[in-house]
Write a structure and sequence with these properties.
Elements lengths: L1 H8 L19 E6 L2 E6 L3 E2 L9 E2 L1 E2 L2 E2 L12 E5 L2 E5 L6 E4 L2 E4 L20 E6 L2 E6 L5 E2 L11 E2 L1 E2 L2 E2 L14 E7 L2 E6 L11 E3 L1
Antiparallel strand pairs: 1-2, 3-4, 5-6, 7-8, 9-10, 11-12, 13-14, 15-16, 17-18, 18-19
Length: 210
Amino acid sequence: MLGRLRRRRRLQYGCSPTGCSPCQGDFVATYGCHDGGCTHVCQSGHGDCKPAPGCETDVAGHDNCGTCGNTCPNTAPYCVPSGNSSTCSSTCSSTFCPDSGDCTDLSSDPDNCNACGRVCSRPSNADPTCVSGVCGFSCNPPSVYRDCNGNAADGCEADMRSISTCGPSCTDCTTRVGPHQQASACAGGACQFQCVSGFDDSTSSNAMPA
C-alpha cells in the first residue's frame, strides 16, 4: 500500500496504482494526476496542438493565435499579445512591429530593436541581443570567447585559450612568469609555464590559475 501511495503522489512514478510510467513530456507543460492518469496544463503562450503529449506549439503566432488552429484572417492578420493570451488584430500595438504576420516585441527583437527595422549589429564571435530596446551582444560560444577590452565595436575579441588572454580574467600569461620561466600554454583557464633552457623545477607545479 505504501508503494501505491508513493506512486500516486510522485509524478516520476506515474499516477496509476498499478504502474510506474512517469508523467512527463518533451515540451512546456505542468503535469499532474487525475482519476489515476496523467494530465497536463500548458504554460502561457503554448498549446497542445498535436497528438504527442506536451505543449509543442507557440500559440502567439499567425496560424495558432491564442488557441490551436486559430488562423488570423486577412482583415486582422496580426497575432497580438493580450494579457496571458493572444488575439488577431488589424494592427500591432505601439510596442510591437509587424513581421510576417506576427507582431515582434520591440524591446527584445534584435532585428527590430526599439524601432521597426533597426537591426542590432553582429560583432566578432558574438550574437546580437536586444534587451529593453537596447542593442547588445553575447559571446558565442561563451566558453571560448570573451569581451576583454570592453569595446563593443570588436565584440568578443579575446580567445580564452590564448596565452595572451587566458581564462575568464583574460590574463596575459607572459606577465605572470617567475624567475627562469616562460609561458608555454593556456589550459583549462590556467596559465602553464615551463623552465627556460638550463633550469629545472622538480619540486613545484608549473600551472598558475589565470
